[in-house]
Fold this protein.
Amino acid sequence: MSTRTLLDALNDLVVVVGADGRLLDVGAAARAFLGDRLAGVSCLRDLADVVEPASRVSPDAVLDGLARFGEWRGSANLLDMAGNAVPFDVTVRADRAGWVALVARDVTDRHARLNAERGSRAKDEFMARLGHELRTPLNAMLGFAQLLELEPLPNNLLDDVQRIITGGRHMQAIIDDVLDLARLRAGRGDITKSPVNVLDIVEGVVELVEPLAQRRSIRRVIHPAEPLIVDADRRRLWQVLLNLVGNALKYGREGGTVRVGIVPITGGRLRIEVEDDGQGLPPDAMNRLFRPFERLGAEQTRIEGSGLGLALSHALVTAMGGVLTAASRYGVGSVFAVVLDAVDVRYPHPDPDQDPFPPGIGGRIPTGASMRVVHVSGDPATRAQVTQTLARAFGADTISVPRGALALDAIHRAQPDLIMIDQQLPDTTASDLLAYLAGDPKAGAVPNVILSAADDAAEALRLRQAGARDVVPSPMDTGALVIAVKSAAGSAATELAGAHPNGASPAGTQYPAAPQYPATTQS
């Protein structure tokens, strides 16, 4: 392959210059950018006008960099054929033969993204300051209005005072949402995660919106009627689901149905769906769905709203480590889905007095697997891969744990044969978690395997010194994982794997079918 072919294959602008400053070669991208300006050019200095004057760099600085380090890096605005300044990252590198290569990479997209982020931060800061400034006079207005409400006023004046209070409280709720959204987008949201019973929250939300459902004759269906646990902030999840269910009732078809589904999905996650059979949204509205103050045409109807609910819900779910998605078909209806990390509660806590879950949660019949593994990982894809690999190789039952803070309780519940820990976790590191588990008599006695982020011998040594029995590099090699599990879990695991080398389950092991939960209908 020729040098010209290589240069032409690059998207970056490339110019090769000899020791005397004469142009030796120009890549296809550079030829296209320079256009007619390249005609008659023989030396690099002939292209000086391509660089915007304000971003030109002294030749001495470039030569100094080449002399000391063999290269120079910087930024410059280059003028395109229309005279527009385009931002580029520029690298100048010298070769032993004496020629010099100039490589310029277009960073317009990066600059646009940074400018958009700066604009978004400025807007959030402005809204936060405005919210704080409005709170003081609003509190005074509400305070004095409530004092007037206690006075013996004529009925017509009392009605006016109550309208002031109602409007003030509505404004107060909007200000609170604006401040909340600004804090969350700045990474300062007050999120406190713990195991949360989703069904309990869904039933509470449905009960709370009962008056609106009755007014519009909308039937509510919750499916399944099974207590399932997620790792979330209880108050914030309530806030999100109240907004989603409330929207489904407001925008759903009168006399129709709103369905709330709670569905376990792969990777140790839980999907909470809120579905309505309303008018739905046109395709061009979907891109604006989670923008603040965007009501998508609802402002032309009599339906009340500020346009902050979905934006705030999206920020809250993201802050809880989850995902909020939406799908809509115009004229048919919409489905909003919250995906969060699930907490496996199939095993009862050995000490009921220490059980952090509500009565009736946990204690479900466990699978008949011969090996039990607790896997601590913040990545759903890794959790799914480990679960499938261990099930096929050992017939193992894997309990997935989404963060380190929940690991000890899961170990006490499941009493596993092996603990697997990802090196990087949402709330801690593998080394710190190993030290924490080592202080517990039960957890410290269980062998462990660490999934490391890189095949780094020094890092593997540090993890072993921190207490790791074995270290498997990531991206994960399933063969290496099986070998590590055999080694760490001991002869029992080896015997199990030897009994079914092709991935079959151990003889006699029966795995129950997925349970079918009845729907609970509230009319």
Summary: The CA atoms of residues 127 and 145 lie 26 Å apart. The chain is about 40% helix and 20% strand.
